[in-house]
Amino acid sequence: VWNNCLAFIQDNIQPQAFKTWFEPIKPVKLSENSLSIQVPSKFFYEWLEEHYVKLLKVSLTKELGENAKLIYIIKMENTYGNKEPFTERIPSSNRSQQVAPQELEVAIKSKNPELKNPFVIPGIRNIKIESQLNPNYSFDNFLEGDSNRLARSAGMAVANKPGGTSFNPLLVFGGVGLGKTHLAHAIGVDIKDKYPERTVLYISAEKFTQQYIESVKKNTRNDFIHFYQLIDVLIIDDVQFLSGKSGTQDVFFHIFNHLHQNGKQVILTSDKAPVDMQDIEQRLLSRFKWGLSAELQTPDYETRVSILKNKLFRDGVEIPDDIVDHVARNIKTNIRELEGAIISLIAQSSFNKKEVTLELAQQVVEKFVKNTKREVSIDYIQKVVSDYFEMDVATLQSKTRKRHIVQARQLAMFFAKKFTKASLASIGSQIGKRDHATVLHACKTVDNLAETDKQFKKYIDDLSKKFS
Ligand code: ADP
Ligand code: MG
């Protein structure tokens, strides 16, 4: 049957096109009036549907009659080392209007009204994809300055044509409090505005990791991957969080490839440029470099003043220029702190019914500059350690004797001893209700392993950086 179809098609199109688009197709199965064919990729399938659907229909109808059906089977590229390549069956959209779970992708392509907002994924669970965007973070209130011009305008270009620029992925990097999250949201908000039908998702790398861990636990890893492959614009904030998390990196690599191949936009933020990222797999780093990496630098004085003035203006508060100037001159490296100082200044003045004086401003600024170091808590330590090992806190605290979990637990105890003032007994009771002897033993074990086990030493060094 297929050969007859091919003969017909060959007669009707250019030889080159035939070679490119029809020779690679493998007929797989014929049952009654439906023929299954295997195509090499989703892109391939989409191309066929877009350009040759009529031809296919005519040729197939000639062979199988009016009720002929064509089923595409897409052979997925096996990108992340799974043993068995998995295939996905997609019935031809022009023949079937019913939406079954596996037909999802096609339904979206054919703009099935049932699948428009609210966006529901059938077959997986009923999840609405809410974009998780914060409408308060817009381009309008992301003030432009030399420090952010490149990143801001690249962001705007991406928002105008998501997936349609060479900035894919767009990676925005820079230090704490310089506007990465704000800009990432602004791009998403603008896209939602211009292209309301596209699915946009903002998610922190941390939350992404948690979802992934959860999916492994619940045996729904494939659903997890599938879910992310449906998104048109994926924004992942703080990808440095994926450092050392090979499971999550693996799954992200797979999702990234899929989205990229299908012309979907990926936007990433990170605290470092790709070249400086540590413990991120090479293949992912090289993907990060495909598009554009744009840095958010520390804002210069003029930008700091305009950010402050804009903030005051939006809040309807007036403050004398010399005070704004004082704040802008003294808080230089972090826009969040800059805003924090001015908010606290306003709050204090209204609280004490005092006028905002330069003296008050000096006090507030001084406190801000001093107060940047925060105390670590045992909860925080447990969270960081379990994140680092891609497990959840409950697992870390559990009674299991599995080696890697025991080690994670011992490390948490060790850091709690080192970085908090808590007693051994109190540490023990907070980390899964253990006694002080267990904590003491843990600290000794960690000390010993630090000297004898290189890999373990690296864990300690990596984690120490997160607490000091
Ligand atoms: P990061 O994610 O890089 O740590 P954020 O995006 O959270 O930083 O920004 C910190 C604060 O500074 C936010 O309140 C944000 O609105 C503000 N901010 C950052 N850059 C700008 C800018 N160019 N104009 C106005 N506000 C900004
Ligand atoms: Mg941020």
What layout of secondary structure does this protein have?
Layout lengths: L1 H11 L2 H7 L4 E6 L2 E6 L2 H10 L1 H12 L4 E7 L11 E5 L12 H6 L39 H12 L9 E5 L5 H15 L5 E5 H13 L3 H9 L3 E5 L8 H16 L3 E6 L11 H7 L3 E5 L4 H15 L5 H10 L4 H17 L6 H13 L7 H11 L4 H5 L5 H17 L4 H7 L5 H17 L1 H14 L1
Helix pairs in contact: 1-4, 6-7, 8-9, 9-10, 12-13, 12-14, 13-15, 14-15, 16-18, 18-20, 19-20, 20-21
The protein binds adenosine-5'-diphosphate (ADP) and magnesium ion.
Largest sheet: 5 strands, parallel
Which word captures the global form?
flat
Number of domains: 4
Number of helices: 21
Strand order of the largest sheet: 6-7-8-5-9
The poorly predicted ranges are 77-127
CATH topology value of the largest domain: Rossmann fold
Give the CA-CA distance, first to last residue: 69 Å
Going by helix content, strand content and strand pairing, the class is alpha/beta
What's the pLDDT, averaged over the residues? 84
- Helix content bin: 40-55%
What's the architecture of the largest domain, going by CATH?
A: 3-Layer(aba) Sandwich
Q: Class of the largest domain in CATH? A: Alpha Beta
Strand content: 5-15%
Instruction: Give the tally of β-strands.
Output: 9
Bound molecules: adenosine-5'-diphosphate, magnesium ion
Radius of gyration: 28 Å
CATH superfamily of the largest domain: P-loop containing nucleotide triphosphate hydrolases
N-to-C SSE string, H for helix and E for strand: HHEEHHEEHHEHEHHEHEHEHHHHHHHHHH
